[in-house]
Each structure stands twice: as structure tokens, then as C-alpha cells.
Amino acid sequence: MSFANTEIIEQEYLGRSMSFAEYNGLVDSLVEADRTTGPNQLQALVDFTRLNQARVRRLLKTLSVDENAAAMLRSIGGRQIWLVITEGWCGDAAQNVPAIETIAAVSGDIETRYILRDENPELMDRFLTHGTRSIPKVMVLDRETRVVLGTWGPRPTEAQELFDRRKAEGVDKPVILEELQRWYNADKGISVQREMAEIACKCADAAEQQTAAFAR
Fold first, then answer.
1. Cys staple from 66: which of 13, 19, 30, 193, with CB 3.0 to 4.6 Å?
2. In this predicted model, what pLDDT tens digit does every residue of 41-63 receive, in sequence order?
3. DSSP bridge partners of 111
4. Domains plus CATH for the chain?
């Protein structure tokens, strides 16, 4: 997570972004056509996308709202947009997006929007993680000014630490991904809900400070 970003998201990106229903419908339609998002149409990515959509549907039905996170979100002031950079074939997106949607729905002040990474490389390159185009990446925007107040992604902190540690140990990536899957299964979407609630609260405070500064 990071805060106090001075970036402003141009309206053109919000204009080409999608609601979750639109994004999810797009990916569903691509799967039906044996395709995936992005220019790379390798069959492996198409297969990942099909698996991911099954996971998304299951998680949307089974995830529970974390009440600690919900209480934090209900206390925020100011309206936010959570702009999510993603792709249909991304396994971490399939794990985290349903939890993001679950907790965002608690607050009437939060709107989620989705935009594809590979169609918007210039935007993605402004929000790299350790120099890589890791997704999902969430930018928390002030809805009025489009200022980026904070970012999250691509994984909950504990999951990212697991990935980084095992990668440094030289463990093969398929093994790491299996371990991450077990971590996600045990976590049940709680970590991302709490981290997004925390960042939303801090971003709301930052927006209030900016407004007060402009009013002086």
C-alpha cells in the first residue's frame, strides 16, 4: 500500500473503464468464444481465464463481509473511485476482485471501475510494483478531482511476503502459486477487505487535508 500520490487520472481512462458488471460480462463473453482479454491469446491463458471465472462466481457467492472492515468503511467521508487495473487471465485478480467488490458494496461512497492492463500500458507503467506490471492494481481516487490518494496491489501484504520469500529461496513458480492458492483459501478474502478499508480511510483523511489546504 502507498499513499500521498500526486498522480491525477485523466478522464479518458475513466471513460474507457468498466463497471464490475461490464467487466465480468466481457470476460464471460470472451470465455464463451474461447478467448481471453489482451493481445496474447495463448490457449493456456484462455484456460486460466475460464478457471478464474469459475472461481470469481464461487467467491461472489461464498465470501462474507468482514465486519471490522465494514465498520471502517462506513466511517469514511468523501466519495472515492477504486480504479482496478486487471486482466481476465490473472489468477491474483480472480482471488482478490470478488473481495474488493464485496467490501466496496458496504459503502455508498465507493464506486469500483475496471480497466485492462494491456490496452492501457501508459497507465500501468505509472503504477508499477518493484518495476513490474503486476496486477491487480487498485488506485483510490478522489471522485471530484481524480487525484490518486493511494494504491493497493497486487496481493494482500501477507500473500506478497510469501511470494517474495519463496521466490528469493529459488522455489519454482508453480510451487509458489500452489502455496498462494492455499493461502487464499485459508484467508477467505479477509485480508484484502481489511487492507482496502484501511487504505480507503487513510485516503479519505488525505482528501480532507487537501480540501482544507485549498480552502486556506
1. 193
2. 999 999 999 999 999 999 999 99
3. 81
4. 2-215 (3.40.30.10)
The rounded distance, in Å, linking the Cα atoms of 193 and 208 is 23
Separation CA 57–CA 84 (nearest Å): 18
Residue 71 backbone class (left: φ over 0; alpha: ψ -120 to 50; beta: rest): alpha
At residue 118, what are phi and psi to the nearest 5 degrees? -75, -15
Distance of alpha carbon 196 from alpha carbon 107, whole angstroms: 12
Rounded Cα distance between 186 and 177, Å, is 14
Predicted pLDDT of residue 169: 98
What lies within 8 Å, CB to CB, of 130 at 6+ separation is none
Strand pairing partners for 113? 83
The half-sphere exposure of 193 on its side-chain side, counting CA atoms within 13 A, is 24
- 72 contacts 104 by C-beta, under 8 angstroms: no
d(CA 81, CA 123): 16
